[in-house]
Design goal:
The chain is mostly beta strands and 266 residues long. It is 3% helix and 46% strand. The chain has one domain. The chain is built from two helices and 17 strands. It comes from Clupea harengus (Atlantic herring). InterPro entries: FAM78.
């Protein structure tokens, strides 16, 4: 733990006296579920990543506002939907894919830099006379829809989806921040990963096409012994949802952008 910006040397800095009493990070111990109720798309829902922390903040003696909460960034996104010999579709983060950035904000798109603005953060308005014991929590999972036919096909085209592969990595930080000065303390750093492989036989009847290959249980998140700094671009726009684009990559012709990103780094 340590402040990113220093504000004094003679006595302990306020931010260094903030204490994490308890932290839990886990992924629900159950497999991804598959939904074939639609004749247009296959849906699946991954287990939830969950993080919760109890934090003790000493009295805030000045007229300051401190926020304690979760910030998350996406470090890797491989998301491929295979359509046999036709090709594959891919949700991509261009800046991440090219190596231009190492992480993208996974904020809700409104509450930058925070992951969310309800249970994910706690705000303390000083001055306060007593310690503040608080709890902040967050959860994350994926529940996309993948078209049975290739993304550029006309409505009513036959099912050609043969497989789905997804591998994403995230870093999640528990952070305390002085809202006026921007002074920031990294309290804890968590890394986690979500993977899946689904095999699809498009020739089978709807409801019997897809099966989960792996994993049945996800790897447990890692709470790092040493905090990892937050990349600057992971604190601001665009968030991962707005930066992603859907590409169709045919086997024999040039790639086609099906859905462009809503927002890119300038």
């Amino acid at each position: 733990m340590g402040c990113v910006q220093s504000s004094g040397r003679c006595k302990p800095r306020f931010c260094d006296t903030i204490t994490v009493l308890e932290l839990n990070a886990s992924i629900d111990p159950k497999p991804t579920t598959i939904d074939e109720s639609s004749d247009v798309v296959l849906r699946y829902r991954t287990p939830h990543f969950r993080a919760s922390a109890q934090v003790l903040v000493p009295p805030v003696l000045k007229r300051e506002i401190w926020t304690v909460g979760w910030i998350q960034a996406c470090n890797q996104m491989d998301f491929y939907n295979h359509y046999g010999n036709e090709g594959l579709s891919s949700w991509e983060l261009p800046e991440l894919r090219s190596g231009r950035v190492l992480a993208l904000s996974d904020s809700d798109g409104v509450s930058y830099p925070w992951y969310g603005s309800t249970s994910e953060i706690y705000t303390i308005v000083g001055p306060t006379r007593r310690d503040t014991k608080l709890t902040v929590s967050m959860n994350d999972n994926f529940h996309p829809s993948v078209t049975w036919s290739v993304p550029i096909a006309t409505l009513g085209s036959p099912a050609q989806l043969t497989g789905i592969r997804r591998d994403q990595r995230f870093t999640t930080w528990l952070v305390a921040r002085n809202e006026a000065s921007g002074e920031t303390t990294l309290l804890r750093t968590v890394r986690w990963r979500m993977r899946l492989r689904i095999d699809v036989d498009p020739q089978r009847p709807l409801g019997q096409r897809a099966r989960l290959l792996e994993p049945l249980l996800q790897d447990e998140p890692q709470v790092l012994a040493k905090n990892e700094l937050i990349p600057a671009n992971a604190l601001d726009q665009p968030n991962a949802n707005d930066a992603q684009m859907l590409m169709w990559r045919p086997s024999n012709t040039q790639p086609i952008m099906v859905i462009p990103p809503k927002h890119t780094h300038t």
